[in-house]
Amino acid sequence: MLCALAPQGGAELPPSDAASDPISMEPARDVRREQDGFLALSQEPWLRFCGLKGFPPGRFVELRYAASVYDAPVRPILRFWIGEEFKEHILPSPCEGVALWIGRVPCETTAVWISPTNRSGAFSFRILGARPLGRIEALRKASAAPKRLFFALSADMVGLTEEAELNWRWALGAAPMSTYPSWRAARTRESDPDFDRPRSEWAKAPKVVALVDARGASPRDIETTRESVAAQTYPHCAVFTKTDGAQLDARDLVLPLIAGDRLAPDACACFVEHFARHPQHAIAYADETVGEGDALRPIYKPGWSPTLHRFENYVGRAACVRASLLAGESGWIEAGADALIDRLLSRAGNDVVGAVRRPLFRLARAASGRRTTIDAVFRSPPPAVTVVIPTRDRIDLLAPCLDSLLRKSLYPQFDVIVVDNDSVEPRTQALLHGLQAQDPRLKVLRKSGAFNFSALCNAGAVAGRGDYLIFLNNDTEVVTPDWIERLLFFASAPDVGAVGAKLLYPGGRVQHVGVVLGMGGVAGHFGAGVNEDDRGWMSRNVLPHDVSAVTGACMMIERDKFDAVGGFDEINLPVELNDVDLCLRLAARGWRTICHTQTLLIHRQSASRGGGALRLQRVYETERRAFYERWRAVIRDDPHFHPGLSLYANSEALP
């Protein structure tokens, strides 16, 4: 097959890209070239770069690419073929129009593929440029993360290729939020009608009505909003103030605004395309920017979290609703835009809310936030709960764990199964024997063999009597006395699977407030490393929220749901990533995962296994590969994170 030239045009390219050679691509797998773009034949289509032009093996490269603003933002996957094997990188999403990735091409690379989208159907994607970087330039770009740069260089010197590659990703993969104005300037482009093609029939699409609250507003603010609506690329828009007496059709889409709010030129079109892709959605919200000039910042929001919304209106008014939703809503004309969206979201079902993950709004003033104090503690008659603790010796960890559990826990009906995996130290045996004799709640289950966390947990679950299971590491300590009641508050809900806690390092800094898929290339603890009272991204460090997964260091799940998905995978994932895998299998059955950040425990992460942060990459490589192959589709695009944020930072950062 002859290689076709990648479409050109769109953004006015900077000199470095304008000087680079065009990059040609051809369909490789599950994709067909169309006259005006590509057609994905599956949820993982692949394009092949024609040759290695722009990808010199062993060199650092800077890759710039764009996707249509009317396609949902997705992180592409870049695949370097090395013979019959390959290495993959999850790239930044072009959610602002253009994206940029810097990385190193493996020395043995024989071919390069890219998967631009994760959904079937028409899509637009183009390579704007690829240029090799000199080592000095790469070092300069990585110098913002000196610790990671040091590890990368050190690993390179001693031939630890995988360890070096991982640290280069961390060193090159994040920029501070304070750099957003210049970062954004390099990643925005003008709309291109030949590239940004509608996916739905706009002639038959609904009208978008901007309903503006102009009470107390100046004429200039009203005109600012009118002008932004008039500048929309979508042709069927209207703007009314609440005193104009707007007549809405049930098919209309409504944008509740405040005078002075501005819309991005493609905002209405993006909402129209979103509702066409997701006809079940009645509400869709978007991101926004705040500030001006050097103080400009994005507010990137996670995918819909009904749990987080119960505690705080994190969406604000940057949302669009179907007019039919307003038909049964009394007083909606008089309600303020923020209060109206908050009210509609609070009454919406979990499956009727979606997110357009692009900054489509510049608000005149910040949304009036709503924070609600909820007594998120189980108060009904207590069901039986079993706590499962796998262990092997390490009495220095196990003793304080059991002491805090048995002494501090207020819950009246729980038993403890300590699954002893070949402990040999006399002090450990004496501790377990003594506690078992003194406390009828505790039972020791002996299980010999190689350490297999999944098998130990599964065995403990079978031995327990509880209707609910808590899997607890032996290097944890209870801080919150009613921790079981708090976990049970969410775990007892019919649509919830796993529930985790907020875990702290012994010094008080955050160790876990949920798992983000794709972080570090596979999965990681986003929000870690800050002080306990730091609110974190979208207040998720201090408020309960939906996540894709929680750590098995402290996880509650109803027994029937645990059994329904077959428990932990003790065959393919005996040690690593079995907790994340369990949460994803629960999600596949429709059960949500929640991190209850008002439940505190101390966790000496991986202390009983020697400190996971320093292990070589070849340790548990087979498990990481099995997990990645099983869950690549969700790893590339965590629905509870944001594709505009870096996967190589513990807190909010730009990719």
From TrEMBL:
Protein name in UniProt: Glycosyltransferase
Top-rank taxon, per record: Bacteria
This protein's UniProt keywords = Transferase
Q: Which InterPro entries match?
A: Glyco_trans_2-like, Nucleotide-diphossugar_trans
What is the species of this protein? Answer: Methylocystis rosea
Q: Where's the Glycosyltransferase 2-like domain?
A: 386-564
A Gene Ontology molecular function term of the record:
transferase activity
Lineage of origin: Bacteria, Pseudomonadati, Pseudomonadota, Alphaproteobacteria, Hyphomicrobiales
Q: Where is this region: Disordered?
A: 1-23
